[in-house]
């Protein structure tokens, strides 16, 4: 009786250790994952707070780096008087037109060179030589050729955009499994069907990677291009602020450029994720 009672007591006794505390490691792992996300969010906020405190204590001179509150006030003024909205429309139009022109040229040439050995031997070498040139160094030449209006700005963006798309399109086409193309040929697919059902879905993920690279280059190019005799756009706001020594407005304009780049890159990343999911589900 004593032995059976002891055994039953032992059987129902709570078990200590990793098995009994299995919920705790899971909870700790969940917090560990979210902890890094919280730190990533709070670190820029902490930097802004330190910046503001340094400016308030005169550690950071206002003539070199204005306080975040002053930069925010300058931005709020641009929003209130409508200058920022007008500038965004102008700058966004320049980037969109440059992306369209450069994107069509880059993808078309990449497809041509990727699908044709003759084109690779004749078209690719001159393009590689042109790619080696720093396209922003062509600004003086573009001004002499096209004047100081909108054309050189848009063409500079187009030139910067074209090469990432060209290289990614060419590389993606060359990586297509030839068995897929042979199967499509055996099934009697026309050229248009092979392109739309085999080639395009296969190159879409890498093409979107090139598009992300092109977007970053487009905004960087626009920052420089709009410094050349602009009468509208974000570059015009920055140039005007420079003439009046308004450092807070200059920094706000650069922040807007950065935010535009981040937002457009995020949109393309969403499209890229959908394309990769489609590729994985095939």
From TrEMBL:
UniProt subcellular location: Cell membrane
Keyword Ion transport: no
Transmembrane segments: 98-118, 130-148, 154-173, 244-268
Pfam families: BPD_transp_1
Leader sequence residues: none
InterPro entries hit by this protein: MetI-like, MetI-like_sf
Keywords: Cell membrane, Membrane, Transmembrane, Transmembrane helix, Transport
Main location: membrane
Domain ABC transmembrane type-1: 84-268
Membrane topology recorded in Swiss-Prot or TrEMBL: Multi-pass membrane protein
PANTHER family: ALIPHATIC SULFONATES TRANSPORT PERMEASE PROTEIN SSUC-RELATED, ALKANE SULFONATE ABC TRANSPORTER-RELATED, MEMBRANE SUBUNIT
Protein family (similarity comment): Belongs to the binding-protein-dependent transport system permease family.
Protein name as annotated: ABC transporter permease
Organism: Williamsia deligens
Phylogenetic lineage: Bacteria, Bacillati, Actinomycetota, Actinomycetes, Mycobacteriales
